[in-house]
Design brief:
Blueprint (H helix, E strand, L loop, with lengths): L1 E3 L6 E2 L17 E13 L13 E4 L10 E10 L1 H6 L6 H16 L4 E3 L3 H13 L20 E19 L2 E18 L5 E15 H7 L7 H23 L3
Parallel strand pairs: 2-9, 5-6, 5-7
Antiparallel strand pairs: 1-4, 3-7, 4-9, 7-8, 8-9
């Protein structure tokens, strides 16, 4: 088993304007209230986190650089039970569609996989799985996957979500500064042998929202759909990058 030691910093995506502390600048002074004092963290027990000791690992799976990209089928994008319990809003369509779209874009653009389905078909299936609150990425055989054409199966699981919000005041109006961090595991399984490799990635989006947008957060349990999608996409990109290094033969 080989891998990369040391946790990579979270990838950052779609960074919005951050709240600043400005004093006496005309009439547009801004105050940040309670920065970092409100947040929700969802993490599964350590026993459910097979990647916890190493960012990327390959369990006997080795790919030759000249064979890339490999033909693959995306079996599942799941959500851990702990994350789903803390953020039931993840199953809402306005959240799931953006997440599915960003995940599939990251997989298609990775250079590691050549997915055998049209991008729209993969996105639709992943969105349906998120809407059902699909369980974790098990790496087990899937009878729906194309049998003859696919040598590798791909699984993903959202294993950690953290949101932090702070109220802001600009002049006479208020808003919210929201930080969203997503951690995801991506796993590739060679169908014929059962050999596997997996990696974890993290993505983060910082965003400042106006009062009306901040009020809408309550309907989704504190989640901003664009922030979740951006953080998840960045997390998948980082995970696949780590996975490439773990499974490609030197």
């Amino acid at each position: 088993m080989g891998g990369n030691s040391g946790l990579q910093p979270p990838a950052r995506a779609n960074r919005g304007p951050l709240a600043l502390l400005l004093v006496g600048v005309g009439c547009c002074s801004q105050v940040v209230l309670g920065l970092g004092c409100a947040g929700t963290v969802a993490r599964p027990p350590e026993a459910e986190m097979p990647w916890r000791q190493e960012d990327g690992y390959a369990d006997r799976l080795t790919l030759r650089r000249e064979d890339l990209p490999v033909r693959a089928y995306v079996v599942e994008l799941g959500i851990s039970a702990a994350v789903l319990a803390a953020y039931p809003g993840l199953v809402e369509p306005q959240v799931g569609f953006g997440v599915a779209e960003r995940v599939v874009e990251a997989l298609y653009g990775s250079g590691l996989f050549r997915l055998v389905e049209e991008k729209a078909d993969v996105t639709e299936r992943v969105q349906e799985q998120l809407a059902r609150g699909a369980g974790g990425a098990t790496g087990q055989e899937n009878t729906d996957a194309p049998a003859a054409a696919v040598a590798y199966l791909v699984y993903g699981e959202i294993v950690d979500v953290v949101t932090q919000r702070a109220e802001t005041v600009t002049g006479i109006s208020g808003g919210v500064r929201l930080a969203t961090r997503v951690r995801i595991q991506v796993r590739i399984v060679e169908r014929s042998s059962g050999r596997a490799g997996a990696a974890m990635g993290m993505g983060e989006v910082d965003l400042e929202l106006g009062a009306s947008a901040a009020a809408a957060l309550q309907r989704l349990g504190g989640l901003d759909p664009g922030s979740v999608a951006g953080a998840t996409g960045a997390a998948v990109e980082q995970a696949v990058s780590t996975l490439r290094r773990a499974v490609i033969a030197p």
